[in-house]
Design a protein that fits this description.
Layout (H helix, E strand, L loop, with lengths): L15 H15 L6 E2 L11 H14 L15 H12 L11 E4 L2 H7 L10 E5 L4 H8 L6 E2 L4 E2 L3 E4 L25 E5 L11 H14 L2 E5 L25 E6 L1 H4 L7 E4 L5 E2 L2 E2 H12 L5 H9 L3 H27 L4 E3 L5 E5 L6 H12 L1 E2 L1 E2 L10 E5 L4 H12 L2
Parallel strand pairs: 1-15, 3-6, 3-7, 7-8, 8-9
Antiparallel strand pairs: 2-10, 4-5, 9-10, 11-12, 13-14, 14-17, 16-17
Helix pairs in contact: 2-9, 3-9, 4-5, 10-12
The structure holds pyridoxal-5'-phosphate.
The site of pyridoxal-5'-phosphate (PLP) has 14 residues, from α4.
């Protein structure tokens, strides 16, 4: 008789955004006259830039002729895209990453969720708290986290690294924190900068300390750089490979979703350097095998669209789009500060992380914002216990909606 993967039964509650969606749908059904503004889920709202649209049209035309029609894409991605990425995203920064270390996929969520498959079941993971939920949940499914312990609102074998206002929302190097089960040295360290949900960034000097730690302890850093395009400040690394020694200890995830508005098109990539080895086995080869076995390649037309993001006009257009979202972030940040709220982020990331007023819980503030201002945000506690009493707003809304939402929040 078949049996289920019982690890799934350890997953906690429903996915954060499903809970939010349900609450918002119920509110809208009960109040059809109200205009609800959504600054909750991190989805983009602006159309694809002209360079991308032109590339899509051209690729669709190619698909309509026998001579230029394409079937299955190469599992690891078309050379035209992998070479462009290696050149423009890495070599241009002085990072020696080759095309054959780049794996094109349908987005960073799949890669962040799937990467754990190439590691042993007994590996201990470390995550920031608060954290993007995919890293923990994918490891719960794989049986790597131990039991859920309601007392700590977390899993027994996971090392949670608190990110608090006192530490500018940056984690401390492992060692100061252990898992509830007593594990101290993580094998896999998930880092995400610019950070979702806090909007915090890590300087190159600080990230270097993590790289040095990982090399010293034989840990692997899983570095999620999905929001790299939003970095505006000097001294903030765009890639972990800007740090010395990162190629022997780090995997990096990138996404076209927020960089170029591809949330609906689906495109991302993962970098696994050849130098990264465990017991002499190259993780690059394991990931290539995994990708080849379980993934049949991102669509040709989408990869052509991705290539267009790197063209001269494409770069200019997506840069303008990102700057436009960052202007929204500034409007939110300034408005909240004017209203006397404590808020940060929004400078190198599309997220604003605010402290809930009057010490309300994150969900109390969610309900108040929905009911009294008709604005939807994301409760910080949904990202982990250290997110309690915090709240995330996103800069991906329409300009007018963003201005109106901030006005309504000011009047609360
Ligand atoms: N990583 C982080 C930190 C994210 O916030 C998101 C999306 O919100 C993703 C990855 C997913 O990116 P993609 O759309 O490429 O799957």
């Amino acid at each position: 008789m078949a049996s289920i993967n019982k690890n799934y039964l350890r997953l906690q509650g429903s996915y954060l955004f499903s809970t939010i969606g349900k609450k918002v749908r119920e509110y809208e059904a009960a109040h059809p006259d109200k205009k609800v503004i959504r600054l909750g889920i991190g989805d983009v709202t602006q159309p694809l830039v002209p360079a991308v649209i032109n590339a899509l049209h051209a690729a669709v035309d190619e698909m309509s002729h026998k001579e230029t029609f394409r079937g299955y894409a190469p599992d690891l991605g078309y050379a035209f895209l992998r070479e462009t990425i290696a050149e423009k995203d890495f070599k241009a920064l002085g990072c020696d990453i080759d095309a054959d270390e780049i794996f094109v996929s349908d987005g960073a969520k799949s890669d962040c969720g799937n990467i754990q498959e190439i590691f042993g079941e007994d590996n201990t993971i470390a995550v920031c708290d608060p954290v993007y939920p995919v890293y923990v949940d994918s490891n719960v499914m794989a049986g790597r986290t131990g039991e859920y312990d309601p007392a700590i609102e977390g899993f027994k074998d996971v090392i949670y690294m608190p990110c608090t206002a006192e530490s500018s929302f940056l984690p401390e190097l492992p060692g100061s924190t252990a898992s509830a089960g007593g594990r101290k040295i993580p094998d896999l360290i998930y880092l995400c900068f610019p950070n979702n949900p806090t909007g915090a960034v890590m300087s190159k000097a600080k990230l270097q300390e993590w790289v040095d730690y990982a090399n010293e302890h034989g840990s692997v850093i899983l570095y999620d750089a999905a929001y790299e395009a939003f970095i505006t400040e000097e001294g903030v690394p765009h890639s972990i490979y800007e740090c010395k020694g990162a190629k022997s200890c780090a995997i990096e995830f990138r996404s076209f979703s927020k960089t170029a508005g591809f949330t609906g098109l689906r495109l991302g990539f993962t970098v696994v350097p050849k130098e990264l080895k465990i017991d002499g086995i190259a993780l690059r080869d394991l990931w290539a095998r995994r990708h080849g076995t379980k993934f049949n390649g991102a669509p040709y037309i989408v990869q052509r669209a991705g290539e267009a993001v790197y063209s001269e006009e494409g770069r200019k257009q997506v840069k303008e789009q990102v700057a436009w979202y960052l202007e929204n972030a500034k409007i939110i940040l300034d408005g909240l500060k004017d209203a006397g709220m404590e808020a940060r982020g929004g400078k190198n990331a599309p997220y604003i992380w605010l402290k809930t007023p009057q010490n309300m819980t994150s969900w109390e503030f969610f309900d108040r914002l929905l009911e009294e201002a008709n604005v939807v945000g994301t409760p910080g506690s949904g990202f982990g216990p250290h997110g309690e009493h915090y709240f995330r707003l996103t800069a991906f809304g329409d300009r007018e909606d963003t201005i109106e939402a901030v006005d309504r929040i000011r009047q609360l």
